[in-house]
Amino acid sequence: MKNKDQASPANVMLSDFLCFAVYSANLAFGKAYKPILEELGLTYTQYITIIALWEEDNQTVSGLGEKLFLESNTLTPILKKLEAMGYLERQRDPQDERQVRVSLTKTGRRLREKGFKMDLVEATGLAPEEFAKVQKAIVTLRKNLIESLQTD
């Protein structure tokens, strides 16, 4: 929200809220990705799950959930669907049967070639250095919000 000098409580508009700007930008990203993801047959959440596995294969479900900021009750159906599509496999960790490990299949790794053609940097209208700056600022914002919720 703008500082108190810029807007009095009686004049606060929805567009004054930072949370709404981030939320609506997220919706716009979803719309921009939609035609590309439809071509791949994936949802955005399925796509970022695969990206996380391209980055580090053979992760535990809990570690993957932390990386994606997803609870297991949200992540598990995504993993089941991606497994049914032939992009990944889930197996119990032989060293710790309580853990389930997730790995990409050959088909899941090949999807990377198509997936990396999806570049929305240009669609944002931001110069590469501005894009990096905004991305870094949003990561910092997320980190600060998460830290503010943690109790000592």
TrEMBL record:
The keyword Transcription regulation applies. One of its GO terms (molecular function) is DNA binding. InterPro entries: HTH_MarR-typ, MarR/SlyA-like, Transc_reg_Sar_Rot_HTH, WH-like_DNA-bd_sf, WH_DNA-bd_sf. Residues 15-143 form the HTH marR-type domain. GO terms for cellular component: cytoplasm. It holds the Pfam family Staph_reg_Sar_Rot. One of its GO terms (biological process) is response to stress. It is found in: Cytoplasm. Its main location: cytoplasm. Keywords: Cytoplasm, DNA-binding, Transcription, Transcription regulation. PANTHER family: ORGANIC HYDROPEROXIDE RESISTANCE TRANSCRIPTIONAL REGULATOR (PTHR33164:SF5), TRANSCRIPTIONAL REGULATOR, MARR FAMILY (PTHR33164). This is MarR family transcriptional regulator. It comes from Caballeronia humi.
